């Protein structure tokens, strides 16, 4: 046993012992974190359909009173990790309290898998009122050949197929009122940039699985694993932490991240 502690100090042992996985709870301005792997955040009916899904941060909840329109919780949906399964006509709605509305920055992450449906403009996550540039809805668009964000009467897309593919998509808006700049990141890589003006400030509710302003445009054949919303354009370092966290939490273990991504081979940690 002699020499077993060579090169290791008491402080290094404590540092190792205290290291715990990083989570979105550490993000600046986090507004909501919906964890589709955790049934404790959900109210399930007898058929494991989700009546209520509550976020881990601010208590924002999405609900669905109609049984046939509820998404289904699957404890081993993909890569041995749980998720919510959406088929045509299934969606949930809630408030937009605490979410970034109007001419304000935001960061939105959705990690999931689309089976590929023929319906265009299927909404995944959205919030905000029915006014020009106000509602923000992440969509699977153009028969799954594009990923888009809709600001109601202002639609922006990034050409990256989601069909049959697991994706971690981050849409980020930064800047000052009247001159917001947007970026799409897909699986840790910049996929597109854009600007948006004329944002009105009428607030509305929020939705999961459909466009809030048109609940007939539901996404079909989609598995959601994680949803994170921030009231800020988080730093690039935190964005990479979020990408790494999503990859390892959703069971992909860095497989989709580039060789130079800081969390390609290990999840982000605290301590």
**Quick one: overall form?**
globular
Task: Please compute the radius of gyration using only Cα atoms.
Answer: 19 Å
Tell me what portion of residues adopts beta-strand conformation.
35-45%
The helix count comes to 2
Largest sheet: 9 strands, antiparallel
Element string (H = helix, E = strand): HEEEEEEEEEEEEEEEEEEEEHE
Number of strands: 21
| Distance between the amino and carboxyl termini | 28 Å
User: What is the residue-mean pLDDT, rounded to a whole number?
Assistant: 84
- Unreliable segments of 5+ consecutive residues: 1-6, 8-15
Structural class: mainly beta
Helix content: under 10%
Question: Strand arrangement, largest sheet?
Answer: 3-4-5-8-17-10-11-12-13
Helix/strand layout:
Blueprint: H1 10-18, E1 20-21, E2 30-35, E3 42-44, E4 50-54, E5 61-63, E6 72-78, E7 81-86, E8 92-94, E9 106-114, E10 122-127, E11 136-141, E12 146-150, E13 155-158, E14 165-174, E15 180-186, E16 189-196, E17 206-208, E18 210-211, E19 214-218, E20 222-230, H2 236-249, E21 269-270
Antiparallel strand pairs: 1-21, 2-20, 3-4, 4-5, 5-8, 6-7, 7-20, 8-17, 9-14, 9-20, 10-11, 10-17, 11-12, 12-13, 14-15, 15-16, 18-19
In words, what does this structure look like?
By secondary structure, this protein is mostly beta strands. It contains 2 helices and 21 strands. It has helices spanning about 10-20, 235-250; strands at about 20, 30-35, 40-45, 50-55, 60-65, 70-80, 80-85, 90-95, 105-115, 120-125, 135-140, 145-150, 155-160, 165-175, 180-185, 190-195, 205-210, 210, 215-220, 220-230, 270. The strands form 4 sheets. Strands 3-4-5-8-17-10-11-12-13 form a 9-stranded antiparallel beta sheet, with no helix packed on it. The model is unreliable at about 1-5 and about 10-15 (pLDDT under 50).
